[in-house]
Amino acid sequence: DDEDNAPNGIFTVLTDCYSPTCTREQLCYSVLCPRRLEQARNSEWRKNHHRSTSRSSLLKEQEEERLWINTVDKKIYDSLSREEKKRQEHIYELFYTEKDFVDDLAYVKKYWIQPLTDSDIIHIDRRHDVIREIFWNINEVHEVNSRLSKAFKRRQDENPVIDQVGDILLEHVGRFQPFVKYGSHQIISKSAFESEKLNTPEFALFVKVTERLAQSRKLELNGYLTKPTTRLGRYNLLLREILKHTPKEHPDQEAIPKIMKIISEFLSSVNHETGRTENRFNLQMLNERLLNKQMSGMDLDLLAEHREIIMKGTLKKKGSGSESSDMHVFLLDHCLLITKQKFVQGAERYKLYGKPIPLAVLSICLPDQTKRSSTILPYGRPSTGSFTSAANGLEIPPLSSNKGGYPISFQHLGKQGAGPIALHATTFSSRRQWVEKIESQQQAMMEKQKVFDIVPVVDNFFNPFNRVHCAATFDNGKSILFGSDQGVYLKKEGKESDFIRILDMAKVSQIDILESSKLILVLSEKNLYTYSLETLLGHESGIKRGRKISKHVAFFSVGPILDKSDPEKHIQKMLVSFVRINAITSTISILEPYENMDAKKKNKHNISRLIRGSNEVLRSNKELYVFGEAFSIQYFKNIICVGCPKGFQMVDPNSAEVQSVLDPADERNQIIFERESMKPISMFRHHNGSILLCYNEFAFFIDKKGKRLRDDWAIHWEGSPTACVFRFPYVVAFNSTFIEVRHIDTGDLHQVIPGNNIRCL
C-alpha cells in the first residue's frame, strides 16, 4: 500500500530536451528546457537573461552580428566614405557566405557521405553506385570552394578593410567547372535519393535520424544538395552590388565584369547540360514505365542520343456526364504519345492510349474555333488556324471562362490512324502552348527535311462552281493550262493579269499538250478533242474549233515509245492512247501524230488531210483490249503498261499480246495476286534498271522479268494514295489529306505536306 501511495511522475530537470536542435553549448529557445539553467551558466547569454529568448529575436541578433560594421573598430568605420562602407558590407557578405557554403558541404561529407561509406546501411554491392548517384561530385565542389574560402580568409586577416577581391576571384573562378557537372546531375541525384528511401528501410531510418541532428539545422538533405547550384547563381548578385559601390578607377572595375562574364558562361553551361540530362533522364523513365510499346507499330527509339521530349503534361478526356480522366501526353521530337497513368504494385506506369502519332502525319484542330479552308498548307502557316485570325493575324482571346476545358482534337492522318482523339486543356493559355509547341516542332521537321517547296499559283480565282480538275504545263513550265468545270484557262509565268479562258466548255477532266505537234488534247464530258496550240493561244477572236476524236472516253495518256520500224536508231515516237470502258473489257485506242511517219507516208496522208480537213493531225494506229476496268496507262520502251483489276499488265502495241508485269512463277508475288484490295497506281523505272511498282497499299521493286527484288524491303504508305509521281530520287504519293514524299532507294519518309481535298492534277 505504501508503494501505491508513493509519488509518481517525471523529474524533468534530469531529462533531455525534446528539441532536436537543443545542445548544452547554446541556449535553447524553449523556456521549459531542462538544460536551461546549465546553458545559462555556461554561455554569455546569462548576462542578457532579462531579454526575450524567442527564436525571432535570436535570428535577429545573429543577423546583426554578421555585419561588417560589428567586426571593425569604430574609428576605422568612421574614416570611410558612405559608398566604401556599403562596398565593405557586400564584400563581407561574399566572404562569410562562402565560408557558410563550404561548412555546409563539409557537413554533408561528415554526417552523410562518410557514415554511408563506412556502414552497412546500403549493401556493399550497391553502396558505391548509390552514394555516387546521390552526391555525385560534391567533394570536387567542396575542394574548389575550400581553396577560395581560405583565400578570402587570408585577405581578411591582412586588413579589416578589404581593398580588392577581383584578383582572388580571377585566380579561382576558372576552376568552377565542377559546378557544371554537379548541377546537370541534380535531377538524377534527387530521383536516386527518393528511390533509395523508398526501397531501403535502413537508409530511410538513417535519413530520418540524421535530418533530426542539431548539426542539420532542421534542413533536409535535399536542401543541402541544392546549395552548389544556388551558390553559383548567387555570385553575380553579390559581385554586382560590390561593383556598384566600387570607385571608377579601382582595379575591381575591370576585374569584376570579367569574373561575372565567366560565371555567366558557367551558368549557361549548367542550364544547357541540365536540360540535356533532364531530357535523357525523362526519356529513360518513360522508356522504363511505358507498358505496351509493342503496340505502337513503330520504333520509338526513346534512348537515341538525338531523341528529345519537347513538352509533357496532363490533358483531360471527357467521359459520360461530368466524368473525365487524366491523359498524360508526351510531345517528342518525332511523335506524340497519349498515355494513361496506372500503378503496378505501387510503381507508376504509362499505358499507350492508341498508337503513337508521327508528327509528320499529325493534324490538330480546335473544335471551338473556325476551321481553315485552304487546300494545301504552306510552310510557316499553322495547321489549325485557331489562334490567328485570317483577316488580321491577331490572337483570338477566349470569350469567357470555359469550365469544361479547352478542346484539342488530335488526328492521325492516313490509314495507320484511328479516329480523332479530343482532349481538353484546363486553361486557354495551356492549350495555346500545346498548339504552338506542336506546330513549332512540325515546322522545324519540315524545314529540316524539306524536299519540295510549295509555290502558290492561284488562290481565289476558282470556286465550288468552277472547280479545277486537271492541269498541264508547256514552254518549259512557264505556262500552265487548267481544266475546270467551265473551260480551259491559261496562266503565264510572271503575268500579273488574271487567268485567260481560251476554251469555253463544260467539265474538262483532262488536258495534255503535244508541243512537237503543237496540239492540245482536251477531255470534256467524256469527249476527246484536239485543238491547235497556235490557234488557241492566238489573239484572233471568234470560235476556236477543234476536232472530236472520240466519245465515251474514260481517260487518255500521252507518252513516248521506241519505233520498231528502225530498231537500230532507237528513235522514239509519241503515242496518244485513250480508253473506253464497257462492262467486261477496256478498249485502248492508240493514235499517232502524223509527224511520226516517214516522209513518203507523210506526203501521202497530206493529200487525205486536205480532203478530210486540215485539223486532222492524229491517225489511228491500233486498238488493244484489256480485261476489266483500266486505271492507268504508262509507256516503257516498246510496250504499254496498263493498270487494271488484275494488276499491272504489259501490252505489246504490235502483237496486241497481254501478259502480267509480275512473274506468276515467283511465289513472292502471290500475295499481290490474292489481295483484291490492291489497286495498281503507277510504275517507275529506276536509273539502275529496276522497276518500282506502286500500289495503293505499298510499293516494291521488280526486275525486268517481273521477279521480286529486295525481299525484305517495301514502301508502306502512311495513307492510301490515289496517284504517284516520280522525280528522282523521290516518289511523291498523293492522298486526300496529305502528300508524302519518300526516297526511292530507302523508302524513308522525307516530307509530308498536309492539306484538305488534295488531288494530283
Automatic annotation (TrEMBL):
Q: Show where the PH domain sits.
A: 308-443
**Organism's domain of life?**
Eukaryota
What are the coiled-coil residue ranges?
Answer: none
Q: Which InterPro entries match?
A: CNH_dom, DBL_dom_sf, DH_dom, PH-like_dom_sf, PH_5, PH_domain, Rho-type_GEFs
List each copy of the CNH domain by range: 465-761
In its UniProt record, a GO molecular function of this protein is:
guanyl-nucleotide exchange factor activity
Q: Does the keyword Cell wall biogenesis/degradation apply?
A: no
Which keywords describe this protein according to UniProt?
Answer: Guanine-nucleotide releasing factor, Phosphoprotein
The record, for CDD domains, names:
RhoGEF
Where the record annotates domain DH, the positions are: 86-273
Q: Which PANTHER family match?
A: RHO1 GDP-GTP EXCHANGE PROTEIN 1-RELATED
Protein name per Swiss-Prot or TrEMBL: DH domain-containing protein
